[in-house]
Amino acid sequence: VRDERYGQEEEEAKGRRRASMILSNRFSRRERDGWTCVDHTLQEPRGNVTILALSAAKRDEVHLRLQSLTGRELLSDRKGFFSHLAPRQLAISSVRVATIQYTSLLANFLNDQIQTETAREDLVNRGLLSAKEADDQNEEWEKREWTVRMEALPNLIYTGLLKFHAITLVMRFYEIAAERIFDKVTVDRLTMDSFKTGVILSKSTKDTKEVRRQMYDICLWSSAVAFLSDYTVHQLILLYVYYAYFRAKRRRQRQKSSKDDGNDAEEDRTLVSLAIQSAVLMASRAAGLFAAAVGSAWGCTIYPGWGTVVGGQIGDGLVAAAFDGIKPLLEG
């Protein structure tokens, strides 16, 4: 019994020494901005004040264990400011954006087609329209709408590419800001490649529950900057649209040289609409972040790598669809 207890204590001591070595090797006093980490306690080098930071130090230790397990260095997944403009990355992003825009257009077309055909079928059942007339109208609608939407597809792809590159540049600015504010462990968590990490992590353990737990944490942190950047760009677009609307309205009022008593009330309603849309946008991006992390975690256990990507897209898409249904109710 004494030998077994001694063996357990020796293993625990080895684990503590290994964690301490990792922390001391990966983080110098300068890299931790003047703070040192010893046995899960952050100690200030000046004076005798000791600040306990158990949760933060424990989080760093868990992350470093994952680093050691996957064999990757800190900030190894950090992208350069213009890395998305490299030929290979530019081609991949362009194909990805074009595919997303086309599938979105196709999904909306099929949804509108089903609704239109259902409405005409109801007219047929009520005797207000013959079956042949309904078929002819459905065929005409399909040809007309498909032509219109395919003509609009290049513009949708162009707009999607502009948004993608704008969001990517905003991400790089946020990452630079994070490097100036946080330590390297936190920045590494914010810039980690969940695709590669999910593949390596799934090979290192067969415990699917542990993989889901780890991947949820990884995807939540690594997607935070992307979702924040997406929210920032869309919020700026929303503000510009309302600004352009108010500017055009004031110009028309000056040309008419007349005042309408209902203008103030209309402007108030417009500002309320802006506030509602901004709140919905913020809530949808926050909910999408958590839903994408859950979807990525489950997708990684099903098919590591691409399952992580597809699961995250499904989670984000479900939230976006839910908020698209809620938005008209809120505005009404």
The major sheet is characterized as: 3 strands, antiparallel
> Share of helix among residues?
over 70%
Overall average residue pLDDT: 78
Shape, per Cα inertia axes: globular
Binned strand content: under 5%
From the alpha-carbon coordinates, what is the Rg to the nearest angstrom? Answer: 27 Å
Structural class: mainly alpha
Unreliable residue runs: 21-54
Distance between the termini: 73 Å
Order of helices and strands: HEEEHHHHHHHHH
Secondary structure tally, helices: 10
Read across the widest sheet, the strand sequence of neighbours is: 1-2-3
Give me the count of strands.
Answer: 3
Describe this structure in words.
Helix content is 80%, strand content 3%. It has helices at 2-26, 54-70, 87-125, 131-181, 184-191, 194-204, 208-222, 224-256, 262-302, 306-331, and strands spanning 36-38, 41-43, 50-52. By secondary structure, the protein is mainly alpha-helical. Helix 9 (262-302) runs antiparallel to helix 10 (306-331). Strand 1 and strand 2 form a beta hairpin. The protein has a three-stranded antiparallel beta sheet. The longest helix has 51 residues, at 131-181.
Produce the secondary structure layout.
Layout: H1 2-26, E1 36-38, E2 41-43, E3 50-52, H2 54-70, H3 87-125, H4 131-181, H5 184-191, H6 194-204, H7 208-222, H8 224-256, H9 262-302, H10 306-331
Antiparallel strand pairs: 1-2, 2-3
Helix pairs in contact: 3-4, 4-8, 6-7, 7-9, 8-9, 9-10
